[in-house]
Amino acid sequence: MYNFSKSLATLAGLLVVSMFLITLAVSENSAVQSQAKTQVEGVWKVAEVQVPSKTPAEKPTTITTPQPGLLILTKGYYSFLAVRDERPAFAPAKDPANLTDAEKIARYEQWRPFMANSGTYEVKGSMLMLHPMVAKNVEVMTSGTPLTWELKVEAPNSLWLIPPSDRATEPRLKVTRLE
Predict the structure, then answer these.
(1) Do 22 and 88 belong to one domain?
(2) N or C terminus of the chain: which is more exposed, having fewer CB within 10 Å?
(3) Over the Cα atoms of the chain, what is R_g?
(4) What does the alpha-carbon distance between residue 63 and residue 34 come to, in Å, rounded to a whole number?
């Protein structure tokens, strides 16, 4: 015979245990979320680019509306994607399975200005060191040399990434926090 009161007691016990586990999970999640982020952790977009001049007499070129770029820094990991130059459009292929040389070149020219790499990072003093684990450019991924940038805090939600002197011909990037 079915014992309704015993089943009700079992159900009530399961409900209490479930509520306890949910409360525990929520409090652990809150503790993790409340851990302080470092100053560089977050999602950043490229907001300005300063291209160094070719001669000391010239001023650098400042681009205030650069091509899209996104830098994501989490606890020890990063992902950096950017378009470094205008990306030319191209017509759809007449036969996608058999591209002509001109169609291949057009696709290469659109892909060429795209930069992407992800991996681990560390901050030592004012230097940001990126250790790529995967990258569009195989040399970046396999060189074993970290990509380094000097970090210059402009405001709480604005940083400059300045290449070191051995890469002084590379642009400086101003990034602003999205999150």
Answers:
(1) no
(2) N
(3) 25
(4) 37
| pLDDT, tens digit, 9 for 90 and up, residues 129-163 | 999 999 999 999 899 899 999 999 999 899 999 99
**What domain range is 6 assigned to?**
1-34
- Residue whose token pair is 């009530």: 12
Place of tokens 């001023």: 59
User: In 3D, which of 139, 140, 86 has the Cα closest to residue 110?
Assistant: 86
> pLDDT digits over 32-80, tens only?
444 667 789 999 999 999 999 888 888 999 999 999 999 999 999 999 9
Tokens of 110: 């659109």
- In this structure, the answer to whether residues 108 and 137 fall within a common structural domain is yes
Output b/e per residue, 83-98; b: 16+ Cβ within 10 A.
eeeeeeeeeeeeeeee
On whether both 88 and 115 belong to a single domain, the answer is yes
pTM of the predicted model over 0.85: no
